[in-house]
């Protein structure tokens, strides 16, 4: 069965919708070309993006793994709260602990995760590290899209038997934290 064409042109290098790879020949245009190139590996096949559809074809596992890892960075309410605070401007760890009411070690652990995911940056200022969003506009776009999707799905996510408030994954995480 022949695959149907993608509804929108998707660049195989940067993954951006509506552009071709020749439009983004500079690998530093949006910072993603290096990551996409690493995900593509040595093959010459065009990489499918999360938003691309090819009829009944299934996206290669590697192309979705990076997306799953990115979304895992957003999977903790404390990390989302940290990102919301950083959207207001740079913060030191001590500022975030005061705003969130979390232990310094907890905030530092979450910031390390967000930094490793490429979502925040840090710089040294005196004896403190100052954190900021790495890509504020893209993050705000993503959070706005998530809010739109949550508005459309209502309580479905909260009621999910696996990831919802009473879900198996949430319960297992809570049990692990209390030990």
Alpha-beta classification: mainly alpha
Domain count: the total is: 3
- CATH level 3 topology of the largest domain: Arc Repressor Mutant, subunit A
Give the proportion of residues in helices: 40-55%
Question: For the terminal residues, how far apart are their CA atoms?
Answer: 52 Å
Looking across the biggest beta sheet, what order are the strands in?
Answer: 1-3-2
Main sheet characteristics: 3 strands, antiparallel
CATH superfamily placement of the largest domain: Winged helix-like DNA-binding domain superfamily/Winged helix DNA-binding domain
Order of helices and strands: HHHEHHEEHHH
- CATH class type of the largest domain: Mainly Alpha
- Write down the overall geometry: globular
Can you give keywords for this protein?
mainly alpha; 179 residues; globular; Arc Repressor Mutant, subunit A; disordered N terminus
Description:
The chain folds into three domains: 21-71, no CATH class; 74-133, Winged helix-like DNA-binding domain superfamily/Winged helix DNA-binding domain (Arc Repressor Mutant, subunit A, Orthogonal Bundle), CATH 1.10.10.10; 136-178, no CATH class. Helix content is 48%, strand content 8%. The chain is built from eight helices and three strands, in the order H-H-H-E-H-H-E-E-H-H-H. Strands 1-3-2 form a three-stranded antiparallel β-sheet. Mean pLDDT is 73; it is low at 1-48.
